[in-house]
Design a protein that fits this description.
Elements (H helix, E strand, L loop, with lengths): L1 H16 L5 H25 L1 H10 L7 H20 L4 H25 L16 H28 L1
Helix pairs in contact: 2-3, 2-4, 2-6, 3-4, 4-5, 5-6
């Protein structure tokens, strides 16, 4: 009777802790999510480039560098997507994704602390998030990227 209870509990813990999923698969899922996210937002920015550039120019934080950021950000998002797609470069891509998410989060915090008018230049449906929603979304992605980096580093050590 006691062993059956322990088996059920350990089975439940395996499901909750994702120990039934290989680390390499989790890394691939997280990397694929970032690929989709960066391709989606990069394409959305380029499809409405004039609006994106105007929103950046209206930003009190990015106004001086708006033209550079308007072209550079989608290009960087595409490059990071390529890095994440190929297993050989995935760890570098995960570090780059982490860096982008930290930059995006820092930008949101800077906007929230310096401005009352907050232009969102995220691209696509992400623009619909509230600024608090942006912080939660970005923070979650930062944590996901950290977890994926740790798992990928561990995978490379074992290989």
């Amino acid at each position: 009777m006691m062993n059956e209870s322990r088996r059920r509990q350990s089975g439940f813990m395996r499901i909750v802790s994702f120990s039934w999923v290989k680390r390499s698969l989790l890394v691939e899922i997280i990397a694929l999510f970032f690929v989709i996210l960066f391709l989606y937002t990069g394409i959305a920015k380029l499809m409405e480039f004039d609006v994106f550039q105007e929103q950046l120019a209206d930003s009190p934080v990015l106004e001086p560098v708006a033209p550079i950021v308007a072209w550079g950000l989608p290009i960087v998002e595409f490059i990071v997507s390529i890095l994440l797609f190929f297993p050989r470069w995935r760890l570098k891509g995960l570090y780059a994704a982490f860096g982008l998410m930290v930059l995006f989060t820092s930008y949101v915090i800077a906007l929230l602390t310096t401005s009352t008018e907050l232009p969102c230049s995220c691209g696509g449906i992400i623009e619909a998030l509230s600024w608090q929603g942006h912080l939660i979304f970005n923070s979650t992605l930062i944590l996901l990227s950290i977890a994926a980096i740790k798992m990928e580093r561990r995978n490379k050590k074992l290989a």
